[in-house]
Amino acid sequence: MKNVLIVSGHPNLEGDSVANKAMVEAFAGLEGYTVDRLDLLYPDYKIDVAAEQAKLVDADVIVLQYPVFWYGMPALLQKWMEDVFAHGFSHGSQGKALVGKKLVLSMTIGAPEEAYGEGAAVHVEDLLVPAKGACALTGMEFSGCEYTFGVSYASRVDDAARKAIADAGRNQAARVAKLIEEL
After folding, report:
1. Residues 117 and 123 sit within 8 Å (Cβ to Cβ)
2. Of 48, 78, 123, 172, whose CB is crowded by the most CB atoms within 10 A?
């Protein structure tokens, strides 16, 4: 069985999220999955580097779960990566702790799909460049990405819309779990 670490990078999962919250709840119920909620652990952005590095060492598969903010990951998740993926741990002549681990991205995108499609200024594949670069530097294997479009604040107009967004989040969690199962 794979040891899967879900790193939830939403900075306010309880207050601001529907899809991401539904995904984290779905992952928490899966055997072999550990959910690392950065919003609860580090609301002050003071990351316990040793604790987070130990979680990464124990994981076979690392999933970064986050909403796309301004074409990238939220500041909390970016700070986590900057602190935890330290020279000497994840890269450099002595940094081999992540070699061979699989990295999966699970993103929610507020905009509709056409905003990232053919002819758009930014294609969804462009959002993967930082993760693929991190994999190249650390020796991790980029193992795929799942994403859901159209889950912005503006689309949460009523209970039916919120339910549809939560369902989309649960569906994405199932796709991520299937991807991991097939690794």
Report:
1. yes
2. 172
Burial class (CB in 10 A: 0-12, 13-18, 19+), 44: exposed
Q: Domain spanning 4-181: which superfamily?
A: Flavodoxin domain (3.40.50.360)
pTM: 0.96
Residue 118 binned pLDDT confidence (cut-offs 50, 70, 90): confident
Q: What is the mean pLDDT of residues 96-113?
A: 96
**Residue-level pLDDT at 159:** 85
Helix, strand, coil distribution of the chain in percent, nearest 5: 45, 20, 35
Distances in whole angstroms, Cα of residue 80 to Cα of each of 52, 74, 114, 150: 9, 10, 31, 26
Q: Sketch the domain layout of the chain as residue ranges.
A: 4-181
Distance CA 7, CA 131 (A): 14
